[in-house]
């Protein structure tokens, strides 16, 4: 295995506790869409998060179209994505918090400069930037090392498509095997795996021991070999990946 020189962090619920906040806004707009299409199903934020965690809003709407059998014109989809982004960014700027225990880890990594640091997210760039700005993480990740599947690519996509990880590697100048992706969701882990990047699974943001165990098992089924429950274990978990 090549020497690891680059760390690629998912943002939502990996660096920043943003998923629940975002999915409340996302659910409200999704319900408005479903009502307009004459579909009786409604979602709470947690329900939508449970079903679509790891996807950006464009991916959620595409999934809803497939599930409930309705179509949107490209402009309609673009307009919805824009509306959702505005609502979510405003919420994150007010309420976002860092994931528990992540700040000391980032401080140490940044000071040691042993690894390059970057963010690779499904979420729109303005949402990711709002998140890292609000919680004081912007100093670790320069703007040219924050990558968004919704914004950074010629054609917007979402994880589990590996395109954003492959793009990040190309821009940074690293081979996938030189990187480790830190991911908390099925779609995120699959994105990294499909890009050929070793994945460190993080389950610490899931509420309750049962949910954490379920995610631990799911990530391992996908091929994630090392799972981290607490950011305090990051060095040990990274060493395990480097020893593979």
From TrEMBL:
Q: Which SUPFAM superfamilies match?
A: HAD-like
Question: Any stretches that span the bilayer, and where are they?
Answer: none
Q: Which InterPro entries match?
A: CbbY-like, HAD-like_sf, HAD-SF_hydro_IA, HAD_sf, PGP-like_dom2
User: Which GO terms label this protein's molecular function in UniProt?
Assistant: phosphatase activity
Kindly provide the name given to this protein in its UniProt entry: Uncharacterized protein
What species is this protein from? Heterodermia speciosa
């Amino acid at each position: 295995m090549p020497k690891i020189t680059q760390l690629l962090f998912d943002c939502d619920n990996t660096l920043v506790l943003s998923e629940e906040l975002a999915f409340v806004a996302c659910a409200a707009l999704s319900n408005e869409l479903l009502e307009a299409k004459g579909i009786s199903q409604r979602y709470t934020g947690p329900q939508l998060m449970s079903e679509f965690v790891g996807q950006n809003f464009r991916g959620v709407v595409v999934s809803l179209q497939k599930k409930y059998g309705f179509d949107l014109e490209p402009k309609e989809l673009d307009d919805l994505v824009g509306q959702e982004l505005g609502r979510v960014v405003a919420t994150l700027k007010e309420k976002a918090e860092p994931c528990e225990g992540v700040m000391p880890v980032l401080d140490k990594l940044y000071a040691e400069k042993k690894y390059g640091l970057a963010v690779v997210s499904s979420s729109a760039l303005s949402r990711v930037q709002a998140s890292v700005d609000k919680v004081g993480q912007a100093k670790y990740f320069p703007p040219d090392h924050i990558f968004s599947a919704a914004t950074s690519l010629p054609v917007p996509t979402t994880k589990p498509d590996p395109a954003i990880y492959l793009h990040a590697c190309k821009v940074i100048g690293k081979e996938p095997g030189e990187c480790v992706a830190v991911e908390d969701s099925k779609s995120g882990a699959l994105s990294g795996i499909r890009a050929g990047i070793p994945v460190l699974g993080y389950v610490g943001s899931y509420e309750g021991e049962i949910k954490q165990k379920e995610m631990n098992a799911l990530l391992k089924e996908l091929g994630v070999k090392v799972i981290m429950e607490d950011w305090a274990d990051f060095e040990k978990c990274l060493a395990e990946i480097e020893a593979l």
